[in-house]
Amino acid sequence: MSYAAFKMMHWPTGIENCASGYITHSAADFPTQIPPSQSDDLEPEWPAKRPIGPVPNLIITAGNVLEVYLVRVQEEDGGTSRPPGEVRRGGIMAGVSGACLELVCHYRLHGNVETMAILSLGGDNGCKRRDSVVLAFQDAKISVLEYDDSIHGLRTSSMHCFEGPEWHYLKRGRESFARGPLVKVDPQGRCGGVLVYGLQMIILKAAQAGYGLVGDDEATASGGTVSVRIESSYVIGLRDLDMKHVKDFTFVHGYIEPVMVILHERELTWAGRISWKHHTCMISALSISTTLKQHPLIWSAANFPHDAYKLLAVPSPIGGILIICANTIHYHSQSVSCALGLNNFSVPSESSQEMPRSNFSVELDAANATWLSHDVAMFSTKTGELLLLTLVYDGRVVQRLELSKSKASVLTSGITTIGNSFFFLGSRLGDGLLVQYSCGTTTTPSGHGKDEVAEIEGDAPLAKRLRRASSDGLQDVVSGEELSLYTSAPNNSDSAQKTFSFAVRDSLINVGPLKDFSYGLRSHADPNATGIAKQSNYELVCCSGHGKNGSLCVLQQSVRPELITEVELTGCKGIWTVYHKSSRGHSADPSRTVSEDDEYHAYLIISLEARTMVLETADLLGEVTETVDYYVQGSTVAAGNLFGRRRVVQVFARGARILDGAYMTQDLSFGPPNSESSSSSESSTASSVSIADPYVLVRMSDGSIQLLVGDPSTCTVSVSVPASFESSVQSISSCTLYHDKGPEPWLRKASSDAWLSTGVVEAIDGGDGSLHDQGDIYCVVCYESGTLEILEVPSFRCVFSVEKFVSGKTHLVDTYIRELSKDTQKFQIESEEMTGQVKKEPTQNMKVVELAMQRWSGPYSCPFLFGILTDGTMLCYHAYLYEGQENMPKVEEISAQSSMDLSSTGTSRLRNLRFVRVSLEAFTQEESSAVVPCQRMTVFKNVGGYHGLFLSGSRPAWFMLCRERLRVHPQLCDGSIVAFTVLHNVNCNHGLIYVTSQGFLKICHLPSASSYDNYWPVQKIPLRGTPHQVTYFAEKNLYPIIVSVPVAKPLNQVLSFLVDQEVSHQMEHDNLNSDDLQRTYTIDEFEVRILEPKKFGGPWETRATIPMQTSENALTVRMVTLFNTTTKESETLLAIGTAYVQGEDVAARGRVLLFSIGKNTDNSQNFISEVYSKELKGAISALASLQGHLLIASGPKIILHKWTGAELNGVAFYDAPPLYVVSLNIVKNFILLGDIHKSIYFLSWKEQGAQLSLLAKDFGSLDCYATEFLIDGSTLSLVVSDDQKNIQIFYYAPKMLESWKGQKLLSRAEFHVGAHVTKFFRLQMLPTSSDRTSSAPGSDKTNRFALLFGTLDGSIGCIAPLDELTFRRLQTLQRKLVDAVPHVCGLNPRTFRQFRSNGKAHRPGPDNMVDCELLFHYKMLPLEEQLEIAHQIGTTRSQILSNLNDLSLGTSFL
């Protein structure tokens, strides 16, 4: 394997930075002011209901992923219907019944975001300007992004780079720095500061356009709003200001010029000197004048504790600054300062008087904080508690600080307030939570105890079950007890208290940090599956989270529905389920709209090759084909409901039938459109059908269109041919109807004419007024030429058209607007000429074979448009509205200069409608086949609480819509799927039916335990402890896991463990008084739990627990197969390696334990029995079985043991200089071991001489995290990941000169992953279509393995070997794409993927890895550019796509 591909399969989910700001809207244009409702007298807790003001966006970053969310607030209002799967958590608070996060845009950057800040003008809520996002990347790159309405996404407004030779002097000779750049901004938005290279401060000056009145006028006149922008930047060297060790900085409120306060340490102290030298920090305030580039020192204060680490600027009107230390909090302003001690370690500085203490003890190191109001800050501690700090003040003088406990929550990595009613807890270790808070001053008696702490948990198992429950009564359990915090309110003589209440409103799933994972069978696996379907038998069981957020995440890349029943059924063409509503109850039952979703289906229609079957979907599926009036003599093309589910329409090749239940009310046949062409029309039959009540659109096989128009008053249908299509020459390749439902149809907003909204309704109105708010119906048509048009129904007037829809541009804009701006016209001509030269590849026949447009129910959802091309490519677009300035004034110009018919259409077009392309990485297009195209897309409204679209075919996939984001989950388990439909009846609640190409009809439902709002479906099993390592026991389907739980112990117990047992009686207690010994100290207690997965997604069961001794840490657990030398049989045992952690005064010891599992199945006590335990010197950090022997890494030795059945006897050893072995891998008799500091060693074991010998090692110093062998045919390579987030591939070549006669491992490839890889897992690659034909069985291509890896960010990827030809092709393409694709934030993918050595000497290795993250951009390019690039690198588009698809298929392991 000389060449490899790096491919991400699950992107990072652990949130590192979160912030809030007005990105997609300004504070001024916020409509949702909630009116005070009338139910005030019912809720004494909130006497004055303050309206929820403007709610800003939430921006989060996780690794290299950037996401912008909107907070959608659902007001308290009993009548709103909501989609079935939607959650309501937390009951009603302050007039709000729920809130959820909705994705606006997301990007994957070529670089990890270090820190993020929001540049905003501050000021009042009526501000018209928008905010910008400032991102900082390693080493000193800053990008400023703003939201652009016209492209519905973020655009880079400025880039600032302080790297490279000309800025080298900023480093002052240093190579490695403790942390990346740190960004903070001025609260008034006048400037920002970035601290890079430890001591260099970069000042970013904001453009001051917002201050002149002219600027504001221009902004509003041009129709769009302007975001804050950066004008220029310059550098301040903090060294010259006599600062040495800068810890933090921030900008403070309330000054005329921006004032930056810097926290720095004059002289460092260290552990041995703390008792003498403890107040070493100081703060300095600089007034920044960006115009003069001056920064005078205006005040400073010294004598802050050495452990101060964070500054918090106090908002106006109080002003000043909070200094957060581990044991104290200090407030300082120019006029006054005060402090608060948090625990017994807080020492007042020499000068000051006695420090006030908080009434409980807490440690505040590593806390995150945000402001809930102008005088209350909320802290999230390292244990996940939320604390409230109140500043008690009079005027601008802060008198004292008061700290009080609140609820407990996730362990946070960042916390931000969103508007005045929400905050978001971002976490790398648990789920991110959106919490609503409400604050009121009441005079309730203090009935609640002060010390009770309730949990607000995102991933409690209870919340899992309630996530689907829609009754609001249950929801209070999730957010725990409502806890009031009594703090005396300022300037108030009577004791009014400030009460805060919280309600969890939404959570973002996080599966990181993945410390370890194992690959095991799913609970409902199919033992007979073969090929790629066999892969969906497996799942990843991952150790993720930490402490109380620790959990097992069960990840599956593909959906595997749970089977209810299956029947054999060959030759099926399609299946449909229809409702039947009797016309009696139509007017009598007013509540029918609410329960529309819960109505059961009446009939299941199955179309076979020569006949149609009809089944009743009551309690049992019974065939009623003989007794109904359906057309059953031939196959059916489509079936559905009309007239509010009162009728069923069934369309077959030559006609259609309308049925009321089982009885036919009307029979139609598709006659020839003109009488003279009757001979030719004999062959024309219905080929595809789209139904939108009360219309049925039929596309005939000759490309003509017939429309069935229904009359709701009589429930009858008439056939008509739209006049516009009768005359048209163009042949239609595909078409669909789109029903814009709802009281206020979405597409109407896209037209700027007021009359349109009234006119259309009258046109549709069926006479009996029942359809008045049914919305509008449009017809989406794609012609053979590639043009897409949206037409109004029934007038068939074109309201939106796009040329070359086939090419898949990133944005679709109405052609009539494009023609007005001259530059785009020029561009169109150029691209025409370009494609004229490059007709190397036959793409003339590229056309859209199927279309679908759908808007799923939801008050804010926008429609999606899907198209499938002839080669299987799927295009997906998301609609948005953009009122650009070029749309408005130019209508008259068109009608003046253009022909008559253009002016008539130009008046009522959907001018403001645009579409943005959505990328579908998880989707692998299918091999294009010569089969007659059948309809492959099926929209579903509710399957197990989710809505979306199912794509059948040879690579079936689920497209689920969660928070306005399409989640694509493939379904591999049944191979190719012919037909799909939903089924909701007594026995199958919101389930589905599909027919496989093997001829089985399966009735299933979605596994409810998994959540599908993630890159992969995931089920989280809370452990309430930190999981460390997991292994899989295949015979019994068990997962042994190392878990540690923090336990508080009395101090004297802890001290007695930390000494050798022999000298423990000599320990003197003179220096510890008695009350010190009563204190508790938290230590981790380890155990190995053996978990068994339950069938069908129930909670997992702990079958057995193996506790460790006190102060003994379990380090590794493995299932090993040992050869018993007495009985001459192989045994599978559970091996555990441990270490005693007793401080540095005690020699290291460890134990190796062997257990046998499940010999006595009858007795549950003896489910697991210890067969051997032995204490060894050194920590036992890794174990592996090598050809029936047990290989143990104990401290600096590696020892091989043989197993006699009663004890382990050493056979061979190797005394390497490893300090601590992190991983051991075995292939045949080769051993790869990775050391925490000394890189990797490659050993071999020889049976005859009984010796372990070193073959080669890496001479560099590398801090290993994980290692594994990579096998490609007969080539063996060694892969290692390190602490700088790199991956290196080495190989052993003793014949090469530079390997020093084989002593040295040579580098084959190196790559920067951007995340810490903690585990590799070797899996055999699956054969793809190209391999099956070319290679004989047993050749190199079949013996090819890829490595699946997990990272601490929660991402999963793989490294797959490539053959040289494919590699060269993809590498050339990759080099092209660096320039061809516009990269977000202006980051260069090549710099991101370069090996990082952090200042250590490193010889660069070969660049033999391609980056699929960049290559997948190729699929998103427009077709013309794809062809052009392929032509430039001397290959074809189909060749590149087939290589990328083979890679996806070969690595679809789950």
Unreliable spans are 32-49, 78-88, 210-223, 442-454, 458-497, 583-594, 674-681, 753-773, 822-839, 887-906, 1332-1339
Radius of gyration computed on alpha carbons? 34 Å
* Number of DSSP-assigned strands: 86
Q: Largest sheet, described in full?
A: 5 strands, mixed
Structural class computed from helices and strand pairing: mainly beta
Task: Choose one word for the global shape.
Answer: globular
Instruction: Please report which band the strand proportion falls in: under 5%, 5-15%, 15-25%, 25-35%, 35-45% or over 45%.
Output: 35-45%
Strand order of the largest sheet: 83-84-85-1-86
Mean of all residue-level pLDDT scores: 82
DSSP summary: helix tally: 18
Distance between the termini: 24 Å
Q: Percentage of helical residues?
A: under 10%
3D structure, described in words:
This protein is mainly beta and 1454 residues long. It is built from 18 helices and 86 strands. Strands 83-84-85-1-86 form a five-stranded mixed beta sheet. The longest helix has 17 residues, at 1364-1380. It is globular and about 100 Å long. It starts with a strand and ends with a helix. About 13% of the residues have low confidence.
Notable characteristics:
1454 residues, mainly beta
Summarize the structure.
The chain is mainly β.
Topology at a glance:
Blueprint: E1 3-10, E2 17-21, E3 57-62, E4 65-75, E5 96-108, E6 113-119, E7 132-137, E8 141-148, E9 153-161, E10 182-185, E11 191-196, E12 200-206, H1 213-221, E13 230-237, E14 245-252, E15 259-265, E16 281-287, E17 297-304, E18 310-313, E19 321-324, E20 328-332, E21 337-341, E22 368-373, E23 376-380, E24 385-394, E25 397-408, E26 414-418, E27 422-426, E28 432-442, H2 461-466, E29 497-508, E30 516-521, E31 538-544, E32 551-555, E33 562-568, E34 572-578, H3 585-588, E35 603-608, E36 612-617, E37 621-623, E38 636-642, E39 647-652, E40 655-660, E41 663-669, E42 686-692, E43 695-700, E44 705-711, E45 716-720, H4 723-727, E46 732-740, H5 754-764, E47 776-783, E48 788-792, E49 798-802, E50 811-813, H6 815-818, H7 822-837, E51 848-854, E52 864-869, E53 874-881, H8 891-897, H9 900-906, E54 913-917, E55 937-943, E56 946-951, E57 957-962, E58 965-970, E59 977-983, E60 991-996, E61 1000-1005, E62 1018-1022, E63 1026-1030, E64 1039-1050, H10 1051-1057, H11 1074-1077, E65 1080-1092, E66 1101-1107, E67 1112-1124, E68 1129-1140, E69 1149-1157, ...
Parallel strand pairs: 1-86
Antiparallel strand pairs: 1-85, 2-3, 3-4, 4-5, 6-7, 7-8, 8-9, 10-11, 11-12, 12-13, 14-15, 15-16, 16-17, 18-19, 19-20, 20-21, 22-23, 23-24, 24-25, 26-27, 27-28, 28-29, 30-31, 31-32, 32-62, 33-61, 34-35, 35-36, 36-37, 38-39, 39-40, 40-41, 42-43, 43-44, 44-45, 46-47, 47-48, 48-49, 50-54, 51-52, ...
Helix pairs in contact: 8-9
